[in-house]
Amino acid sequence: MAKKEVKTNVMRILDTEGITYQEHTYDISDDLIDGVSVAQKCGEDPEQVFKTLVTKGDDGNHYVFVIPVKEKLDLKACARAVGVKSVAMLPQKELFKTTGYVHGGCSPIGMKKLFVTVYDETIVLFDTILVSGGKVGTQIEIAPDDIIKITEGKVAGLTQ
Predict the structure, then answer these.
(1) Which of 2, 64, 94, 133 has the least C-beta neighbours within 10 A?
(2) Residue 121: left if φ>0, alpha if ψ -120 to 50, beta else—which one?
């Protein structure tokens, strides 16, 4: 009997919305799940593979920033992008409770609630990008316009 394909919540949302994507899976047995390692395992340019970072603003709201895996978040630029005085990284222990995702499997699509989401301006340089597919070991390749639309996101300069 054939093994049933297991779809993540991210994939189910994209299927429901009729958005085209391609699934990429990678081996996690070596515990190398950092963004650059994931890009290498998927055979993709790290500039085209994006990580999802969750922050909390000084206003008490959560904000999601999606940047290339090799880059570092510029917290001041992020705060400006969402119109608050400051943002700080969400402690890892609060990630699942807040988003429904674990570290290494956090996707901007399908969080527990629709947070303000901002993509680094470099997203527009690519026909497709890769982001987490909602679980460790899975990435989805998607057109920038589609991911921005489904997350009601915007684009700004976010990296140092």
Answers:
(1) 2
(2) alpha
